Amino acid sequence: MTSAPIPPERRGRHRADAVTQLRDDYGIGQAATSAGTDDDLLRFTAAAARRALGASSVSIERVELDHGSVVVLVNEGDLAPTEVEFPEREVYPLDQYVVARVMEDGGTGLVVSVDDTEADLAEIQLLRDLGKYSSVQVPIRLGGKVWGILYATRSHGLAAFTAADMELAQAVASQVAAGLAVGAHVRRVSELALLDSLTGLASRAAVEERLTAAVDGHVADGRTVTVVICDVNGLKRVNDERGHPAGDRLLVRFGELFGVTAARLPGALAGRLGGDEFCLVVEHADPDDVIDVVTDLCRRAASLPGGEGVACGIASTADDVGRIASAGDLVRLADGAQYRAKRNADRMPVVAGRTLAVPPPRAAGAAAGSDRRTYRSTVLSDAGLAAVLEETVGLLDDEPTGDPAERLALVGDAVSRLTDAASWWISAAPRGGRMLTDCRHGTYRAPRHPGADKERFFMPETPVNLADYPETLRATRGGWFSASADDEAADPSERAFLVQGGYTRVVGAGGPGGGQDWLLEIYLDADSGPVPSGLGPALRALVALALSGRRRPVAV
Predict the structure, then answer these.
(1) pLDDT reported for residue 322
(2) Which residues pair with 321 in a beta bridge?
(3) 533-556: pLDDT as tens digits
(4) What is the C-alpha to C-alpha distance for residues 291 and 161, in angstroms, rounded to an integer?
């Protein structure tokens, strides 16, 4: 089953002929449509590729970006004693496999021989284990993303693969991809139900399923669960300036890098939630290990062509983040950390419970090492509130967008950071309407109250009837309100909501903007400390400015 190498004088012609042979003589397309089983399709495709490349053996391997692994689907040709045609589960970690570097380098491919002193040692060892002399491997791309790997070998006594052969292998891989695409209905080739169609990572549904099971395990046995949420910066600019196909290419490239990252964390699941948002679910790992890996991800992502890096937030049940009773608790924490990273243009990940509580400058006369709550109450005097107003107004002046939700989020994050609030939430209703829907949030601590139950997993849109919350209704018309869980004079429905959420106080303000009525709520807990009475009017003023869309005039 060993094929002779192609003579140098015929290689150029052979490259041109290979595509025709694969399409016509070897009938990959026909095989794909007539293959009775998964195995038939893979066997026919691999055999055609082996003959076209003059190879001794060919393997077709599936890259599982969501799990950070490479799975061998078929081995065809002159096989080593340890190889079988259709392995039950021959899997390689992606981070230890050269395909990871192939993808990071743009998917060009790799040629190796056993006497190549500059070759990857792991690749040379693989050739020795297989009893082969030379190999070439190139990505198989479907829909613009890396679907798998075409890996071809030649035995000792045959000429080594060269760079010219790698060009041929790329042409062969494109025809292999065409054949596989025709047979994409085959279960073993394409399992799309739980995969994101653009990147090949896990779908949103798969992430939700895995995360729910993981957090249920945390509640049952205390296992560590860590969630990473990343946003690709600059995607809108790429879409606007270069078109959506360029934006999709950026997402695919980051998705490949994200999958390689998952491989460094055993058992991790990498998925795309939609748009520019990606999620990594990790069980049992030390959160410091996750932070190290994601920090490296941020560095690598900064060099992606056309992008502006990524903003990453991390939340782990092993950190001091409060009681994690549901998947939604952990997602909100990671999402809040990610928002803080994005707003502050942090190039490194922000970690919930470690770096979110950034105190303002110490008030004059405050002693070093003061208790945090005492320190907070000192800062949030009239002078402290003035500083909050000044800083936030400056941020609104510099905000480039007039989008009400984005400007309100800026206010929510700034006020929460300066008051050490537990979370902020933005909601909107049609102008004059009564049904209020959550649309943005930042959560920095999970509720510590054992009876807390405020589940909003991945921000589902569950409208609230404002008729049940009269204070909130008045706020959406341009006012403000404050309610405390222990204040018997406060609105009973607001108090009940605080107790249910595990919070001690809420301060909210709203108003009209962009054809809708908006509400920004700042939720505080027992760790937030005393709140000055002037916070409500100050928040109302900031919300009004945010909804006005006014920005600092540009100097000319």
Answers:
(1) 78
(2) none
(3) 688 888 999 999 999 876 655 444
(4) 40
DSSP string, 145-162: EEEEEEEEEEETTSPPP-
Q: Does domain 372-548 have CATH number 3.30.450.40?
A: yes
How would DSSP label each residue in 374-399? HHHHHHTSHHHHHHHHHHHHHHHHH-
Buried b (16+ CB within 10 A) or exposed e, 192-204: eeebbeebbbbbb
A 10 A CB-CB count for 289 gives 13
Q: Cβ–Cβ contacts within 10 Å for residue 430, how many?
A: 12
pLDDT at 136: 93
Q: Are 67 and 262 in contact (CB under 8 A)?
A: yes
CA distances from 526 to 292, 300, 502, 503 (A): 31, 39, 9, 7
- Mind listing the pLDDT tens digit for each residue in 44-82? 888 888 988 999 999 998 888 878 788 899 999 999 998
Mean pLDDT over 324-348 rounds to 85
β-sheet with 505-513: strand ranges across? 464-465, 435-443, 423-430, 516-524, 505-513, 480-484
Q: What is the three-class DSSP state of 270?
A: strand
Q: Which fold has domain 204-351?
A: Alpha-Beta Plaits (3.30.70)
Distance CA 401, CA 393 (A): 14
How far apart, in Å, do the first and last CA atoms of the chain sit?
76
Q: Name which residue leads in pLDDT, 106 or 319.
A: 319
Q: Give the model confidence (pLDDT) of 147-164 as tens digits.
A: 888 999 999 999 999 988
Per-residue pLDDT reduced to its tens digit, 377-431: 444 455 666 776 777 787 787 776 778 988 898 898 888 877 788 888 899 999 8
Query: CA 508, CA 484: separation in Å to the nearest integer?
Result: 12
Domain with CATH 3.30.450.40 in the chain: 8-182, 372-548
Q: Do 473 and 481 form a contact (C-beta atoms < 8 A)?
A: no
Structural contact between residues 45 and 60, judged by C-beta atoms closer than 8 angstroms: yes
**Residues 311/346, Cβ–Cβ less than 8 Å:** yes
8 A C-beta contact, residue 104 and residue 257 = yes
Q: What residue ranges of the chain are covered by domains with CATH 3.30.70.270? A: 204-351
Listed range (215-219, 280-284, 302-306) with the worst mean pLDDT: 302-306
Superfamily holding 8-182: GAF domain (3.30.450.40)
